[in-house]
Write a structure and sequence with these properties.
- Helix 3 packs across helix 11.
- The strands form four sheets. A seven-stranded mixed sheet has the order 2-10-9-8-7-3-4.
- The protein contains 15 helices and 13 strands.
- It has two domains: about 110 residues, Aspartate Aminotransferase, domain 1 (Alpha-Beta Complex), CATH 3.90.1150; about 230 residues, Type I PLP-dependent aspartate aminotransferase-like (Major domain) (Aspartate Aminotransferase, domain 2), CATH 3.40.640.
- It starts with a helix and ends in a 15-residue tail after the last helix.
- The chain is of the alpha/beta class and about 425 residues long.
- The protein is about 45% helix and about 10% strand.
- Pyridoxal-5'-phosphate binds next to helix 6.
């Protein structure tokens, strides 16, 4: 007995000391450029601090919002999900309502059952599922991203082992769309393209309807596959249908893919509720594709959570709640547009020689300010204002209370070299 214990203990000790080596080669992962901004903001004790990093809606007090339509849906469904033994019925209803938002409720593709849709873990999860699907059925393909794009797109397709390329999108001089360069990009026929249908992240620059038509035409001629990442429907123009105008691709007979997120436009970030849909040639193909998407999801995370999907489908399938949501989306978009106007007006009032027109020309949550990495660093260290180093500002973080402080601070860091022309002024904070 004594001998047995000693041997066991010696064995345990040597195993435990060897086990330390299992993870010795693992270093710290690179910081996420977006999450890093919030971390820096949180440890700053200044009362003036402003977080322009977070890509979620905030009210004019800088606070997260629970929409009234969500509160009403919560009240209606209270307890009901516990009656469901499986979530597939909830998921199907959710998918049906979600795709109507993108394709239009009377669209043929909806009525003919030509789309295959699956509930996903918010927009990120929908992109990840599609990337995996792409790898499985087009293992030699690439993905073309606009330059620049949401930083996580690179991670998502990289982890699915799909190589990436970029296509021209943003013009740093005009701070608008580089349409001519975009149209003359040369990807091999039959390539996969990721497009932001509205409120492009990070630039806030969207093609016009006419430009979308031309892009669609070119894609058709080159047989490209358009994958739309719809993370901000409603938050660009305030109107859900206008923000889905890129879907005119359907008129040219494209088969498309679409990732939808309800994180921002319904304020359901924490519920991770999204939808991936793939438009197919016919209902039979849609059944096959859906089964493949479910197969991929099953191995990745089983199934999606039920509560957020139940909230969304309750809102979208009830006329009054949907009308309330439409109104609330408009209110969110209008507040952001108003803050764009105020920030530009404040900067112009300060006599800035920088052209700030793009603040109001760009749309959606983000303004691609044109501030350099050094200027962004100065805003953080001297003025307690945080944004990503590419100069992307989340306009949701701008409020009536902080807009003049923000304008004064931006003016301070951009005024260098202009002082001979313009005496330094300040406006009331
Ligand atoms: C373009 C784009 N796609 C997808 C997402 C992911 O959204 P979600 O929070 O729903 O995963 C974001 C969020 O920042 C985004 O900007």
């Amino acid at each position: 007995m004594w001998r047995y214990t000693m041997i066991t203990r010696r064995c345990f000790m040597s195993t435990s000391s060897r086990a330390v080596g299992w993870w010795d080669h693992v270093g710290v992962a690179p910081k996420d450029p977006i999450n890093g901004v919030t971390e820096a903001f949180l440890v700053d004790c200044s009362p003036n601090k402003i977080n322009l990093g977070v890509g979620a809606y905030r009210d004019d007090e800088g606070k997260p919002v629970v929409l009234q339509c969500v509160r009403e849906a919560e009240a209606k469904i209270a307890g009901s999900e516990f009656l469901e033994s499986i979530s597939s019925a909830v998921s199907s209803k959710f998918v049906e309502e979600s795709v109507k938002l993108v394709y239009g409720k009377d669209s043929d593709v909806v009525n003919e059952g030509r789309f295959s849709g699956i509930q996903a873990l918010s927009g990120t999860g929908a992109c990840r599922l599609f990337a995996e699907f792409q790898r499985r059925f087009y293992p030699k393909s690439r993905i073309y991203f606009p330059h620049p794009t949401w930083s996580n797109h690179h991670n998502i397709w990289r982890d699915a082992q799909i190589p990436e390329s970029t296509f021209h999108y943003y013009h740093p001089n005009s701070k608008g769309l580089n349409f001519a360069a975009l149209m003359s990009d040369n990807a091999p026929d039959g390539s996969f393209f990721l497009l932001h249908p509205c409120a492009h992240n990070p630039t806030g620059v969207d093609p016009t309807e006419e430009q979308w038509r031309e892009i669609s035409c070119q894609f058709k001629a080159k047989n490209h596959f358009p994958f739309f990442d719809m993370a901000y429907q409603g938050l660009a123009s305030g109107d859900l249908d206008s923000d889905a105008q890129a879907i005119i691709f359907l008129e040219d007979g494209h088969l498309i893919g679409c990732a939808q997120s309800f994180a921002k436009n319904m304020g359901l970030y924490g519920h991770r509720v999204g939808c991936l849909s793939v438009l197919c040639n016919d209902a039979k193909q849609a059944v096959a594709i859906k089964s493949q998407l479910q197969h991929i999801a099953r191995a990745m995370y089983g199934g999606p959570p039920i509560h957020g999907a139940l909230l969304v489908s309750t809102i979208l399938s009830d006329l009054d709640k949907k009308a309330l949501w439409v109104k609330e989306v408009k209110t969110m978009a209008s507040r952001i547009q108003k803050m764009r106007g105020s920030l530009r007006a404040c900067l112009e009032e300060l006599g800035s020689f920088v052209n700030w027109e793009h603040i109001t020309n760009q749309v959606g949550l983000f303004c691609f300010s044109g501030l350099t990495a050094d200027q962004v660093d100065r805003l953080a260290t001297e003025f307690h204002i945080y944004m990503t180093r590419d100069g992307r500002m989340s306009m949701a973080g701008v409020t009536t209370g902080n807009v003049s402080y923000l304008a004064n601070s931006i003016h301070e860091v951009t005024v260098f070299g202009q002082e001979a022309k313009s005496p330094r002024r300040r406006i009331g904070i």
